[in-house]
């Protein structure tokens, strides 16, 4: 036990040193990959971590996410990196967890509670015959009051500007004092660098030191994937029974309450099917065939798409409500299932309408991250409907839906990172500049990896030849566009020349190669 604690604490300390060496005044790129390799090695040599096939799969998924940060270096790739890291850590220290959502939450809990985990491990460390337990027992009594004081200081600072001013002055003076002491002994060391190391130490410790409370894991173990019929005693009432009894008194028995829920479900799904049939008929006749933009085309598509996506999510919620329990086993539920299947099919048609709306938007206004996001979300809705159908047909639980959709969403998240979306958007819009309302301001707001493509297509960037009927396009002047482009190129050159090998990534290297900076 002592050797294990010594190894993990030493690993956390070395991880803190590695963290500050890799990330101090650097961009997130190759350094993230190096840091991940270190975390993977320490996790897999930890004797408490079971090296299961599931853990290896999520470890490889995280390694892929780290590699994609170096290859694409986008906000999406960095966000995916963090998500995959937390999921991997959650599964590493809680092997019986089955969903990525619980693994993510477990990792967050582990990081938040790292001070308690560190104290627990440090109390088990001994130097020769001297145990550190008494020292850290004392620290434990001091640590909690300090945390409470810090929390309330932040609250009081937010409530009073005067208090915030004095608190900032005190902290500044303390920081300056510590800086003077550090500079006296170490000229190149600053208080900020020390705090950066401490942050890296805490973060690495949170990722490597397992949280000793397995309550979250035990709670998930109680969740089942297959629905079972719950037989209650005569005196035991369902929640639905109690709600109905509030309005009807004692007229209904428990059996009648289930029948009432069935009848209400039949009426609800029948009415919803008719309502959605009307909407789908309108969309098919006016949107699917021979659609021509008119009036506030952009606003209509934007508002309609948001409403439809929200309605699809609500549709799945309604289905989950009615098929959450014993109604799945009701002997007359076949009609209700058929109505539910019909409504799922109609929602699928509704998703096709969302694709068509977004397709028209892209056709006339080009690609943007939000429009791609709508396509992605509509795809997730199709997957959600498919899993909901399987849940109803095979009498699965909501927990099963969380497990299946979580794994599918995570796999899609990694897949979407393979594409460099900023470059894809710029190339698509510039290639169709005669057919879309080109938004030069939006293209200039994208990441620096698009600068070579924008610089090659300066003439196309200044083109505003196409405007959809009924639309008013407001954009910067040509001189303003060229000035912004030149300023961004100049800023990139200045930043790239100051970057070290730790900030290396493929998009920056390609951009620098185009502008002749790689020598």
TrEMBL record:
Keyword line: Membrane, Transmembrane, Transmembrane helix
Q: Which domain of life is it from?
A: Bacteria
Instruction: Identify the InterPro entries for this entry.
Output: DUF4153
* Signal peptide span: none
Q: Does the keyword Transcription apply?
A: no
Where, by residue number, does the polypeptide cross the bilayer?
33-50, 62-91, 97-118, 138-159, 194-212, 262-291, 303-323, 335-356, 372-392, 404-424
Query: Know the name of this protein?
Result: DUF4173 domain-containing protein
The species this protein was found in: Pedobacter vanadiisoli
């Amino acid at each position: 036990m002592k050797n294990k604690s010594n190894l993990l604490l030493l690993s956390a300390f070395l991880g803190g040193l590695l963290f500050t060496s890799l990330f101090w005044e650097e961009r997130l790129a190759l350094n993230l990959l190096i840091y991940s390799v270190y975390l993977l090695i320490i996790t897999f040599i930890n004797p408490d971590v079971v090296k299961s096939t599931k853990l290896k799969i999520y470890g490889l998924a995280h390694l892929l996410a780290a590699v994609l940060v170096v290859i694409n270096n986008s906000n999406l790739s960095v966000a995916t990196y963090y998500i995959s890291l937390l999921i991997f850590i959650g599964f590493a220290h809680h092997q019986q967890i089955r969903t990525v959502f619980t693994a993510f939450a477990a990792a967050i809990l582990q990081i938040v509670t790292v001070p308690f985990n560190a104290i627990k491990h440090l109390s088990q460390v001994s130097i020769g015959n001297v145990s550190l337990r008494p020292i850290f027992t004392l620290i434990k009594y001091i640590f909690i009051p300090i945390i409470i004081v810090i929390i309330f200081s932040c609250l009081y600072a937010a409530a009073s500007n005067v208090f915030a001013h004095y608190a900032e002055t005190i902290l500044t003076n303390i920081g300056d004092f510590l800086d003077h002491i550090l500079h006296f002994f170490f000229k190149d060391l600053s208080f900020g660098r020390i705090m950066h190391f401490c942050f890296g130490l805490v973060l690495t410790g949170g990722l490597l030191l397992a949280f000793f409370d397995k309550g979250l894991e035990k709670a998930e173990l109680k969740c089942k994937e297959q629905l079972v019929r719950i037989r209650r005693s005569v005196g035991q009432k369902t929640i639905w029974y109690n709600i109905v009894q509030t309005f009807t008194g004692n007229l209904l028995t428990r059996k009648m309450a289930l029948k009432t829920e069935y009848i209400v479900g039949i009426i609800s799904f029948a009415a919803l099917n008719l309502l959605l049939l009307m909407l789908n008929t309108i969309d098919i006749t006016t949107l699917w065939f021979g659609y021509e933009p008119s009036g506030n085309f952009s606003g209509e598509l934007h508002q309609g798409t948001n409403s439809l996506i929200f309605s699809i999510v609500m549709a799945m919620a309604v289905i989950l409500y009615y098929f959450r329990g014993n109604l799945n086993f009701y002997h007359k539920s076949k009609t209700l299932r058929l109505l539910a299947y019909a409504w799922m099919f109609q929602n699928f048609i509704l998703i096709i309408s969302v694709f068509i709306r977004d397709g028209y938007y892209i056709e006339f206004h080009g690609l943007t991250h939000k429009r791609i996001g709508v396509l992605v979300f509509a795809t997730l809705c199709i997957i959600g409907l498919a899993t909901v159908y399987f849940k109803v047909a095979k009498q699965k639980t909501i927990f099963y839906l969380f497990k299946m959709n979580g794994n599918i969403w995570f796999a899609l998240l990694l897949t979407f990172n393979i594409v460099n979306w900023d470059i894809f958007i710029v190339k698509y819009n510039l290639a169709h500049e005669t057919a879309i309302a080109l938004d030069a301001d939006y293209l200039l707001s994208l990441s620096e990896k698009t600068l070579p493509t924008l610089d090659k297509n300066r003439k196309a960037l200044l083109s505003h030849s196409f405007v959809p009927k009924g639309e008013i396009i407001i954009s910067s002047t040509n001189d303003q566009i060229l000035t912004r482009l030149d300023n961004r190129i100049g800023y990139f050159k200045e930043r790239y020349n100051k970057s070290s090998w730790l900030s290396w990534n493929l998009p920056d290297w390609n951009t620098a190669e185009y502008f002749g900076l790689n020598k």
